[in-house]
């Protein structure tokens, strides 16, 4: 069996590759191979059980059609300055142009027309003034907020559109290997994702890797086996911070999401806020080997009394170390160990006092955890000193921008680790040194987030449709 285009992974970059090929009226036969289920069959049992049951063989929040996007907060960043390094590859103007185009596609499938972070110029100036005082940079970035439940609906419409247009999608199927002959990608070896059996070889003229952050380990193994050129990527080690809505009220109302960047003393690593969820809920995602990672969601119609956001400390390693993904996993494993396999939560004041947090102390606090099965404990016993100090000093700086942010009752959940893949060496058409093999989205190491990953898919769709 042979296809014109084989797409490995049905996350945003893979989905929008197929979508753009259809929009360009391409007659190419397209196959998407997805490890998880179709979107209507993705369901997290925690909605009923209230605790994570560690679904096997994969977590339904992170795996399946549209990847983690289906259950994410669903924020589309509408500025080229946010979401990775794609502007360095194809230019800022081109990226901004593609963002505008891709945004229209999301609107076509039902995205909310409202854009957050526009207007309110005087209020934004005041927030920026405080950020400068704190030694932080406020990045201007309009946001289109889909909402967790709305994102699910939008991606369901896209899935059905692709199926109706004749795109083949193999669900519950994993790619075990890429077949490379004399420097050319020829085919993929697939198997049933549950049993790992029923192997099959499928040939394709173009093979596009769009496996997302969830596929970082697999892609690294492919790079090593097939000598795909790459360099060690960045690993983000951080926490998810939760405060009362009253603390974040001004920022929430004016910007919806404050994208702040700092380089706190003494180490000067890049530290940033990410994925702010006004009235949102802290959540858990499970990766391979039952690795529990914290995240956050925000719904359109269901709200909590709290706002949560990630604070991430970025680390780049030089020779001889070349295993940033494994490093991040080891940190996460230590935190999970202390939480007995659960997400750990600690009050900021207890961190400053050098003590763990106890459940009875959480029960007495103004900030009530929105992740009810998080375990009170001590993050500082697991997160390395350097990123922990970066996070602490960044929170103190944030307190100048948002008074009360560094309250003793502010909650820190961990681990929040972003497993960005090793950065794949690609040309401006996203082709690797293996002819016919392309790499997109977060799996490529070039993007971070829904919009930029979608943009990469749109662009490769445009390029391939002309060939």
Describe the protein.
A hairpin with a 3-residue loop joins strand 14 (281-287) and strand 15. This protein has two domains: 2-111 and 146-231 and 422-465, FAD/NAD(P)-binding domain, CATH 3.50.50.60; 235-419, no CATH class. The two termini are 21 Å apart. The protein is built from 14 helices and 21 strands. Helix 1 packs across helix 6 (148-164), helix 1 (12-23) runs parallel beside helix 14 and helix 4 (92-108) crosses helix 14. The model has no long low-confidence stretch (mean pLDDT 93). It is α+β, with helices and mostly antiparallel strands and 467 residues long. An eight-stranded mixed β-sheet has the order 4-12-13-16-11-19-17-18. Strands 1, 2, 6, 7, 8, 9 and 21 form a seven-stranded mixed β-sheet that branches. Residues 267-417 form the FAD-dependent protein C-terminal domain. This is FAD-dependent protein C-terminal domain-containing protein. InterPro entries: FAD-binding_protein, FAD-depend_C, FAD/NAD-bd_sf. It comes from Paramaledivibacter caminithermalis (strain DSM 15212 / CIP 107654 / DViRD3) (Clostridium caminithermale).
Number of H/I helices = 14
Number of strands: 21
Number of domains: 2
Contiguous low-pLDDT stretches (5 residues minimum) are none
Strand content: 15-25%
What is the CATH H-level superfamily of the largest domain?
A: FAD/NAD(P)-binding domain
Biggest sheet overview: 8 strands, mixed
Give the CATH level 1 class of the largest domain.
Answer: Alpha Beta
